[in-house]
Structures are given as structure tokens and as C-alpha cells.
Write a structure and sequence with these properties.
The protein is α+β, with helices and mostly antiparallel strands and 204 residues long. It has one domain: Roll (Ubiquitin Conjugating Enzyme), CATH 3.10.110.10. 30% of the residues lie in helices and 11% in strands.
């Protein structure tokens, strides 16, 4: 006869105290830290905490133009003094699941979060991967950060009204929007008033 036994009181210990990915993947953590600091020195690593970032992440400012091609002349004028400040939240399954990136400044409006053209999900996270399989576990976190930098530029172009939707692949790999940066500035520039041109003769 089989005798019934009571529950193993230690069986749930592992479930109550899961191993963090930072402990499970120390080599990957070190790699992320090295690569991110080289790519975006103004990002600060955040250790896992019970509140806010339970699996760790990054917070800080991303570079404006971290791309290999030349920066458009009017980029600084388009963006002004507003840098892209982001929050990067790791998942429990990193690196199998990509981190989630939020734009803290500029912060997309609630309306923008409901419109797919802005590449922002409800809740404010950026939609940086537009296709299944867009993230590979061996990929560098800096690939996503570069996409976020590109999102910031396209966000400014959307605000300026020179594009109606963000590009599928993003400015990071698609230069088709580069020339629109100058156009956005030209559109924003006030039209000169000939009557205020001093002694200029404006008569027919």
C-alpha cells in the first residue's frame, strides 16, 4: 500500500525567491554595461529593486545622432535643447526578451500612445521592433538604444508636420528622412515681412 505523504515545505522556496537574470547571466550583464557605457555615457545603470525596476535597467540621456552617416546640419536646431531622456527596463527573461524603453522627455501624450503612427504603445513604451523576430538574444542592447535615438528625431519630424507616420525600420538604418530635417526647420522659419526690411523698396 502506498502511504500518502505531506507536502514538501521547501518545494516553493525557489518560486518565492527566483534567481534574477543578473545573477544567472553575469557575463551578459558585464557585456551590457561595457557596451552601453561606450555608446551612451550619460545612461546610468540601475540595479534590480523591489520597486520601480525589479529586474534592473538604465536611466539617462541618449546621444542625438549615434549613426555612422553624417549628421544633418539642422539636427540641433530641430531638437533644440531637449535631449532624449529614457528609462530602460530589463525583463525577467533578459536577454531572451528585449528590454522595454520609455521616453521620459519628451513624453508622448496619451493620444499619441493610441496612434500606431507614433510608434508608442499604450503606457508609453516605444515600439522599436516592428516585426516578429526583430530582437535576437545575442544582439547588443545598443541596437535598441540607437533605434530610440532615431525615434526621437522622427518624433520631432512628426511634431513639425513633415511626416505623417514614422518609418518602419527607423532613421537608424533608413536615411530617407534625413533631408526632411532641413525641411522641418525651413517650414518653422517665419516668412520675412518685406515692410520691415528697412529701406528696401517694396513698391511694384
Amino acid at each position: 500500500m502506498t502511504r500518502a505523504t505531506g507536502p514538501d515545505r521547501g518545494a516553493g522556496t525557489a518560486a518565492l525567491n527566483p534567481v534574477l537574470w543578473t545573477e544567472r547571466e553575469p557575463v551578459r550583464l558585464a557585456r551590457d554595461q561595457d557596451e552601453v557605457q561606450a555608446f551612451a555615457p550619460l545612461l546610468e545603470y540601475q540595479s534590480p529593486a523591489d520597486d520601480g525596476l525589479p529586474h534592473g535597467g538604465w536611466i539617462g540621456v541618449l546621444p542625438r545622432w549615434p549613426f555612422e552617416r553624417p549628421q544633418p546640419n539642422a539636427l540641433d536646431e530641430l531638437l533644440g535643447d531637449q535631449e532624449l531622456r529614457v528609462l530602460v527596463a530589463y525583463s525577467a527573461a533578459h536577454p531572451m526578451v528585449p528590454p522595454t524603453i520609455y521616453s521620459l522627455d519628451p513624453e508622448p501624450s496619451i493620444w499619441e500612445q493610441t496612434q500606431s503612427a507614433w510608434h508608442v504603445a499604450p503606457g508609453g513604451s516605444l515600439c522599436l521592433l516592428q516585426s516578429d523576430g526583430g530582437w535576437q538574444p545575442e544582439a547588443s542592447l545598443t541596437e535598441l538604444l540607437a533605434k530610440a535615438s532615431g525615434w526621437r528625431i522622427e518624433y520631432a519630424l512628426m511634431k513639425a508636420g513633415v511626416i505623417n507616420e514614422m518609418s518602419v525600420h527607423g532613421i537608424v538604418s533608413d536615411p530617407s528622412h534625413d533631408h526632411l530635417i532641413d525641411r522641418a526647420i525651413q517650414r518653422a522659419a517665419p516668412t520675412p515681412d518685406p515692410t520691415e526690411a528697412g529701406d528696401t523698396d517694396v513698391s511694384p
